[in-house]
Amino acid sequence: MGSYLPITMSLIDSISEIGFSGKVGVLWSGGKNSSVLWDIVSREMDCTPVFIDHGLHPQETHELMHRMFRKGNFQVDIIRNDRVLGNIREGKVYLSDGAHDYTMSDPLVYRELYVNPLIEATKKYSILFAGNRWNRRPEDSYLKYFERNGSSLIVRPILHWTESEVWEYILKNRVDVNERYSKGWRIVDYAYDGKLSDVRAWDQK
């Protein structure tokens, strides 16, 4: 493997030097980045998988959660906005300003179903690992490895990884991943994400 993994391990090791200690959570979404992150961090320290349930995950994600955590005796911390999820009818999310399409591309829906639960997660964990990568989305390009959020520390140790390096780690270490990848999906965040190819995700260019 290249230099990407040693950098990640050095970042994880440096947490004790920063002086943060306490409950450790690892954000897990069912995607390849968070599955790699869990595989790495769970080998190094006691931690809890944290799943933000926005109600739009594909069935394959729930199946993977069962395989990875429940059979491994890990208690998944499922964080969700039950108030908003209880106000979804016929594909519409009813918020204080009216009805919105039930899609995470709507900024207000995204805030209520992902951002606000994420804020709650930072209140529960002294250290919260996240699997963002600089080259995955333009909005992630400004992120830093370490970010203080109140009394919590958000750690993003695979920011520098490329997609090919993620797949290299997965294949070499036999990390269990979402079955959608083997069916041609490259993005598995939401059930409505489009399938772009019949070629397995790790063989796509």
Topology:
Elements: H1 4-13, H2 15-18, E1 24-27, H3 32-44, E2 48-52, H4 59-70, E3 77-79, H5 82-85, E4 88-89, E5 92-95, E6 98-101, H6 107-124, E7 127-129, E8 146-149, E9 152-155, H7 163-173
Parallel strand pairs: 1-2, 1-7, 2-3, 7-9
Antiparallel strand pairs: 4-5, 5-6, 8-9
Structure keywords:
205 residues, alpha/beta, six-stranded mixed β-sheet, 7 helices, 35% helix, 16% strand, globular
Structure write-up:
The structure is a single chain. The chain has 205 residues and is of the alpha/beta class. 35% of the residues lie in helices and 16% in strands. A 6-stranded mixed sheet has the order 3-2-1-7-9-8, with helices on both faces. The two termini are 20 Å apart. The model has no long low-confidence stretch (mean pLDDT 92).
Q: Beta fraction of the residues?
A: 15-25%
Query: Main sheet: which strands, in order across?
Result: 3-2-1-7-9-8
Largest sheet: 6 strands, mixed
Give the oligomeric state.
single chain
Q: How many separate helices? A: 7
- Total number of strands: 9
Summarize the entry for a quick read.
This protein has 205 residues and is an alpha/beta fold. Helix content is 35%, strand content 16%.
